[in-house]
Specification:
Elements lengths: L2 E10 L4 H17 L2 E18 L2 E13 L4 H9 L5 E8 L3
Antiparallel strand pairs: 1-3, 1-4, 2-3
Amino acid sequence: MMSKYELALVINGQLEEDAKAAALEKVQGYITRFGGTVTNVDDWGKKRFAYPINKQNEGYYYFIAFESEDSNCPNELEDNVRIMEQVVRYLVVKQEA
């Protein structure tokens, strides 16, 4: 059975356009590599943080919806996104059916 998930992703606000696109591409690559299918990428653009995170005041916000039959996909995704330098914050949430 396909489960639906959403990944909230905040990427470093000081990255150049191509580095930001490469980081986003890498995350989507992880999703497909671990058996998921990206259904939607919602780009919220650059936003200011409520408080400084790692001495940064702003970041690029993305919401990536994806589906996967493999219940291990979100865990594998988190393990890989966690160690990416460009990612400031992330959260994977399972959507209710």
